[in-house]
Structures are given as C-alpha cells and as structure tokens.
Amino acid sequence: MTTTRPGRLIHRTTAILVALSCATAVSACAARPASTPGDARSTIEQLGAVPIPAQTGPPAPVQASPKHPQIVAVGAPVTVTVPEGSATVTALGPEVEIPPAAQLPLEHATATITVHATTINGQLPLRPGDFSVRDDHGRDIPLRATCDAPSDPAHSATLCLTGEFHTGNAQITWRYNTAPLALWTFTTELD
Amino acid sequence: MLVLNTGGSLMIGFARGARCAVSRMALAGLAVLLLASCAGAPSSRDAAAPGGGRVGHVWTIILENKSYEATFTGLNQNDYLWKTLPSHGLLLRQYYGTGHFSLDNYISLVGGQAPAPDNQNDCPTYKDIAPGTPALDGQVSGASGCVYPAAVPTLFNQLDQAKISWRVYAQDMGNTPGREDAYRCGIPGNPTGAGVPDPAGATPQDQYVPKHNPAAWFHAVIDHPADCAQVVPLNGLPATPTHAAVTGLAQDLTSEATTPRFSWISPNNCSDAHDSTCQGDNLSGDPNNHQGGLYAADLFLQRIVPEIMKSPAFQHDGMIQIIFDEAFPPYKMYGNSIADLTSDTPAALNTPTDTAQSVIACCNELPGPNTTQPGFQAFGQDTTPGGGITGAVFISRFIRPGSVTDQPYNHYSWLRSMEDLYGIATGGSDGHGHLGYAGADGLRSFGPDVYNNPNGTALPPAASGAVIYPATANSTDVPTPTTNAASAPTK
User: Fold this and answer.
1) Model-level pTM?
2) CB B79 to CB A26 under 8 A?
3) With respect to CATH, is domain B47-483 assigned 3.90.25.10?
4) Is there a single domain that holds both residue A109 and residue A17?
5) C-beta atoms of B277 and A93 within 8 A
6) Segment A139-158, tens digit of pLDDT
C-alpha cells in the first residue's frame, strides 16, 4: 500500500496536469481566434507601444522657383519666388458642373480650377496664359479665364480657369517665361 | 530469484513506468494534437503568417478612385498617406481593385460576388438584383439590380455566426433625417419593386453615399435589425424618443470591451478622396476650403488613424488597413490585349490599345457570370478585366514599419484574408469559409510578407522601402526580403 500510493499519486497528478493542459488546449481552441493574449497594458509592457504618427495638418508650402519647380497634389500650397517677387500660390478643384438631369457617370464635363495667390513681397504676375492643363490621355485642355478679379488688390488674387475636363487624372502647370514653376496633379470625378 | 525478483520488480517498475509514460505520452500527444488542430483551424493562415494569427482587431478604412501612381508616387513631400503612414507600416504596391465603378468593388470585398451590370454602374436605381438565382462558383446571376438576396451571405454574417463583434462606421450617415435610414444599415429606401432612383450623390450637409457602404446592398444584413444596429454613423447618434443613443467610433475605442473585433470605416464622399471639390466640410477647419481628393483624405486620415492607434485595442493586437476601391485610369499599359473589343462606342476606341491584364487585374480574377469585363470598359478603356492597381497601407505591431510588399493581392484576397484571420473555416463557396470568389483555387491570403513582424515587438518608424518583400511564385514559398540599409528612421 505504502509503496504504491506515491506512484498512484504521481500518476494521478500527472494525469490531472496533462488533462489540464488538454483542457487548456481545448479552451484555447474554443476561443479561436485568440489574438494576442493579455491586454494593451501587458502587451505594451512586454512588446513596447506602437509609435503613433503625428497629426501634421494641412500641407505646408513647398518652395519653388524657375530653377526648382515643384510637383504637388492639388490643394497644396507652393511658395513661388521669381525676380518680380514671391507669393504663396494654391490651385484648388476642379469644381465640376454636373448638368441637373445628367445620367452619371459622365465621360466629360465643364470644370474649373481656381488658382489663389497671396503676395509675400513684390508683384508676381498671375496670367491665365501661363497655365495649361493636360490629362492622362495626353489631351491639352483649352482653358478660359472665368474670373480674374483680385479679392484683395494689395495682397491676393484669384484666377478661375474653366475647361471641358474628362474623367480621370490630369495636371495643371504654371509657367514663368515658359519655365515650369509648379505642377498640381488632380483627378476629375464625374460619377 | 533475486535477479528475477529484481528483474521482475524492475520489469514491473518499467512496466508501470512504461504505462505511465505511455499514458503521459498519450495525453500529452492528445494535447499537442488538440493544439495542432486548433492552430490549423483557420486554414493555411498560421503556417504562412504567424503574425496574422495574433491580430485581434482590424479597422478597414476604404478610400476612393485613385491609382497607385496618383497616391504613392511623385506628389507632395508632406503627403500623409504617401509618406507618413507607410513609414509606420506596410505599403502594398500590388493591391488591386476588382472592377469599375465603385459599387462592385464593395460587393466583392464583403461578399465575394463578381461585378454585375447595375453595380458596375453604381446602381442608378436602388433595387433588388434579378433574377438573383444561384450561379456557379458561389456567384449569383444578376442581369439587373444591385441588392443581393438573403441567401447571399457577407463577411458580416460570417462574423455573426462566429460570435465576433463587428461594426460599420459610415461618416455623415443620418446627417439629414429621411435621406437615408441611419437605423436600417443606411439604406436609401426600399429596394423591392421599382426601388429607389438615383441613390448616390453627396449634399453639403450629408456627404454620405450608400454606394460606399457595403452593408446596404445585402438582404442578409439589411433585413436583420441586430445587424443594422452595428451599422452606425462614424460619430454616433443622439438619443431620440424612439431610439436609444448610438455610440460612434471614438466612444467605442475607449476600451477593448467596447471595441468591435472588426471595424469597417466608410468616410464620406469628401473624406474618402472621391469628390474633387467637396460639397461640404473637408475637416480643414476652414469653412471656405472645400478641396477634395487626396487633400481631403489626408485630413481625414490625420484625424482618425492616430485616434485608432491610441486605443487599447490597437495597441494590444490591432491592424489598420487603408485600401482603395478602384484605380483611376488610364492605366499604364504594356503588351498585347487579351480582349480588345471591336464594338465600342465611340468607334475611336475600336483600335488596338496594347493593354494587358497584368496591370489592371491580378490573382487570376474571374469575370463571373454577369459580365465579360469586370472593369466595365470604363473611363474610355476598352479592356478592363479588373479594377487596377490602387496600392494599400497596413499598420500593426505585427508589421515592420517601412516595409513594402510586391505580392499581388486584390479585394477577393482581402476577403479571404479576413475570413482566415477570424478563424472562419466552414461554409462558403469552397467549404473552407471563403465566400464567392474568395474561395477561388489558388487565391492567396495575406502571408508572411504582410504579417512580417510576427513577434509583435513595437518598432520605430522607418523610411518606406527599408525592407522589400518580393512576389513569390507559390504561396508556400517564403519570400526573402531585401533590406535597404540606407533607409534612415523617419518621423
């Protein structure tokens, strides 16, 4: 009796332990997908906190000149310096005119790019003829100035450039004496 | 005797020990088998991508209509989606949409259904799909209409069955009462009979559009109030005399207990980069600024990504996915077309265009029973067998910051991956839990190129391209990444 009890005890203990591991395995299986055990606090303690990217806000202006043109997304400001002065210039849009009864999606529509300039110093020329639009099919889109009234003659000006834009990607380029200053890429959405 | 006895006792002892050992081995083996079968439950996921097995919370943010080239190359150095977020995670350079225009991509993502004519056309009338009868490969025949019958399940139904919490957060949904039903999955009206004409389009006060909310297009979801209770406005809803208050994303993120395991986030028609000029607010803080496109998407992402990443659920085991529904042609095309049409209108399109499927579709995408061209001959292209390359960005502690993968994936791969990640292993078109074309033979789930930091150790940001995983020929091949030592850590 006394010689067999410890063995049985060991056997029983082993069986219980193994059974427990089986039960743990079963419960782990039942809980699938288990994800990472623990919680955020213990995970961060063991594995560290995942760095969080900063909130940067609207894009800051990038610097452009005839010797250093910039390519940016539409809506992004560019600080342009030419011999006559410097200004921060932003192309916005396109603002699409969808006819009221149109069956969407359209293949092309009238749309307007608005160029807004705020003078920093000097006098920077903002001429409609210095802007051109080409789309990803290689089409040059004729533009007409539909507004050019300066909102603040001393410091800012707005230029509206309207054309018949096709759905898809395109770009508007601003040149100074034929040299590119800034190029804004944009998408025309007609659906 | 002594020897015998000794031997006998030794034998007995051995025998007893052997029985114990056998018992222990048997029981331990049983445990191992149980664990092994458990580990093997979600199909091939764990073998291919151990990190994927540890992701417990997913947030999928879907943006609109941009090609990879437009989003991730050549633009502003300040671009949040192009520059900042990939330095915190993975850039998938070969992620594809599955069709044109928007809606069919959302259908493919959550239902595995291939494009059909009306959802290729963004559903000009919100009405039931017809005939809606079962076709092959888990597909449904749909000559017209867009709302799938109750017999067509979605990922949301699969999660219900697996008792895994989920929510769809739709920005602006319900802003204008009566415009869409914020208490019934955001549907624009009753899809039966003649349906609801012209369900799309944003307004200055309400930039929600149903075509960007995948839940609204399946009777398997919209007919079930318990499911529609999980389709909520991004910012929640206040209490009314007839409805209790509904929590939004920010409230749900405050604890793991209140955070759904799967969250689908549909930004409004401005924040998702769809509208070139927004009808309403673009989150810039300037009421006169209505710039849309990627400019507006960046503003949205700057707000929502840190909000999610600060949450306990993300820090524990979360993964953020930023995907696009479709690319925006024209594509860069090479090689010879496999399906140049000669019946296009206008006739100018009937010239050989030297197109190739490889840049428009991937992963052996099938057209399905309802259309020969998933891409709908869209955007003046005559050969569009898919949705084009959009790219995608994933962020997780199980992903190395600054990593890049060139393995092709599409929306069906995404669905299959989510089904695998959540351990859904039964039913579907293949009997292994994959709906529709997510169950196509040979389609890959996200692999070790995606879950490339399996131990989950938090790592500092790194310039995108610090580690590049090439595409591999077979899903069983282990990709050998190349490391760009010149890539310095970035902010």
Assistant:
1) 0.84
2) no
3) no
4) no
5) yes
6) 899 999 998 666 666 678 89
